[in-house]
Design goal:
Two copies of one chain form a homodimer.
Chain A: E1 2-7, E2 10-15, E3 25-34, H1 37-44, H2 46-49, E4 71-79, E5 94-96, E6 100-103, E7 106-109, E8 123-127, E9 132-133, H3 140-144, H4 146-158, E10 166-170, H5 174-186, E11 192-194, H6 198-207, E12 211-213, H7 220-229, E13 251-255, H8 262-269, E14 275-278, E15 286-288, H9 290-295, E16 299-302, H10 308-319, E17 329-333, H11 338-344, E18 353-356
Parallel strand pairs in A: 10-11, 10-13, 11-12, 13-14, 14-16, 17-18
Antiparallel strand pairs in A: 1-2, 3-4, 3-8, 3-18, 4-5, 5-9, 6-7
Helix pairs in contact in A: 4-5, 4-10
């Protein structure tokens, strides 16, 4: 089968062996697979991404082939040996799955494994028990975005929002946009969102942001203060016992950028008592000034991934039209197009999410 | 009056004007005042401590006198002008107060102000409405430790402990010891505590730690895992659905060191899902690796100070013998002894808390 392969730290296309499903496993045809920012990170910061201590994809070897791709929709081709479980899906059924293959009571991350291919190849292995049929005739490329949208849903769940919170989203790449969609779904608002890119700000509005900020023109933190002060939540906020002034409602700031310095910048801008949810994946060492966070009693929740329940719920929300994904998709490529797509995705004006369709000639 | 004064970045002793109480204010005689690690920080890292952006004591001027001291017990000498409020305390009453003077609807931090002296001077100004009488004939130096012990109580409150949590205290200086005392009071345990100093480890046991670790010999994180796995909480913990192994109960790690690198080290050692409460005040830039925290979905709560209710409650706990403070007090000095005490406090084998008694000759 054909696949886009990271080999010797380059992205190339080649033929590789089609994997054979073991007991409980299913061979599937990859119909669509989104390119994730984490894949760009893994490609460019391979050593940090795979470093043992950080325990994240730490079994990956630089000298073995890697077929990435963990945001996919696929079609059942063939079941592994063993009896069929009750309620087995028919061959040909379109499915989504968490990108995790469970073997020998351990999880193998599909898309970050040297042993099994991810969605940048024509075929993959998945666990039969993790398959979720794609409902409502949802297009393949929309269903493929279940995974990144689940990341946003999980981040918003981890924020443990109260009706008093006013959210601020820093960075409107796919992660920030997924967070905005889930905030909107939760009824949180006003949603303030900031990004330097005009195209990303337009997408943020499409996904549900109420106020979008260009940080080159206005401080996102001042804009948040203004919006929070004018919000319905502000009417219920406590009063400063010394000054009699009404306090601002609690802020929940989502870090969706993932480059060094952003957390510190947010600490400078934050109002006292804010909670940060760190969703952006910063692969490098990141200096913070604890004194900033101490003086304001800030809280940081770092988050990763989603639960199986959140993943299934996200697919359901997309199928029901409650989480929009169509606006995010800005391109489709075959396996030969992956290397160029990795380069193209660096331009936020041109692209948000490029979907790989390995069956394309 | 005499005071130990930070003048031109040196600690000297001199006579300064006795302050005059305004309306609502009280002139008090300082009976006892603890030397806080923050005072050593302020003395040695004055520019960071007073930097505008970090909003912490940012009104302090390097070219004006500073009389520090914010952990005190005092005696009422004289009331400011105006009618006596109902229930006025008698002159001569021994009192504690949060180290905050409210003037013109703004808080002036007593001990970190160029305008009013702190407890390293013979007399201070306090707000009448913030005075708490010292109960039960509690000795002056014990009552003075209300402030640092309230820091520990607040940190434990901010941890929002559940009955499942197993705490780990990194660093057993006065802050860590205060945290241990409040954990014990809450019934949390086993309390695992780590410090390089044998004297500090002995104090940690005295304050209520169940297991004390020398990080030079054993990893505090491995020791925590062992203790958490053997705890009563472990019997109630969830099971890993893949391996069938019992998960560890949730960890709540208190950072009570406040030097760069400790948070990162804790992130390396932490179990998945741990919460950190950052109580140590790191005055410098501190590199962390967000990837460590993301992979484990760690949460960090930075904390500062205490509420008025927590302060009053702490005094009550000390007076009732529920928070031990006597073991912490390792020395007493007059104002002339402050400069040497600042140096002596760098040796954890010799000292934990030195109390200034400005009336001493």
């Amino acid at each position: 089968m054909r696949a886009a392969i990271m080999r010797n730290r380059e992205m190339i296309t080649d033929e590789i062996a089609t994997p054979a499903p073991g007991p409980g496993e299913v061979l599937v045809k990859t119909l669509a697979c989104g390119i994730c920012g984490s894949d760009l990170h893994a490609f460019e910061h391979f050593d940090a991404f795979t470093s043992q201590e950080e325990g994240f994809a730490n079994n990956l070897a630089a000298d073995r082939d890697l077929v990435m791709g963990h945001e996919f929709c696929a079609e059942i081709l063939e079941f592994g040996p063993g009896d069929a479980p009750a309620g087995r899906l028919a061959s040909g059924t379109r499915v989504c799955s968490m990108p995790m293959l469970i073997r020998n009571a351990a999880g193998v991350p599909v898309g970050y494994s040297n042993d099994v291919p991810g969605g940048y190849g024509e075929q993959m292995l998945l666990n039969e028990m993790l398959l979720l049929p794609v409902p409502n005739g949802l297009p393949d490329d929309h269903a493929a975005l279940t995974e990144p949208m689940a990341v946003g849903l999980h981040a918003v769940e981890m924020a443990k929002l109260t009706p008093d919170d006013v959210p601020l989203v820093i960075g409107c790449g796919p992660v920030g946009l997924a967070v905005i969609a889930s905030l909107k779904l939760k009824g949180a608002g006003p949603i303030i969102a900031a990004d330097y890119s005009p195209a990303r700000r337009t997408l943020a509005e499409t996904m549900g942001a109420d106020i979008v900020i260009d940080p080159a023109v206005n401080s996102p933190y001042d804009s948040w203060r203004e919006a929070a002060g004018a919000s319905a939540q502000a009417q219920r906020a406590d009063v400063n016992p010394l000054t009699g002034e009404r306090l601002l409602p609690p802020g929940v700031y989502f870090e969706c950028v993932g480059v060094p310095g952003v957390i510190d910048q947010m600490m400078v801008g934050a109002e006292r008592g804010c909670r940060f949810v760190v969703v952006g994946v910063c692969m490098e060492s990141d200096p913070i000034r604890p004194l900033l966070a101490i003086g304001k009693e800030l809280a940081l929740q770092f988050v990763l991934g989603y639960t199986p329940e959140e993943f299934a719920l996200t697919l359901h929300h997309i199928a029901e039209g409650r989480i929009p994904v169509a606006p995010l998709i800005t391109g489709h490529v075959g396996v030969e197009g992956v290397a160029q797509a990795f380069r193209d995705l660096k331009n936020p004006e041109a692209h948000a999410k490029i979907v790989v369709e390995p069956w394309r000639s």
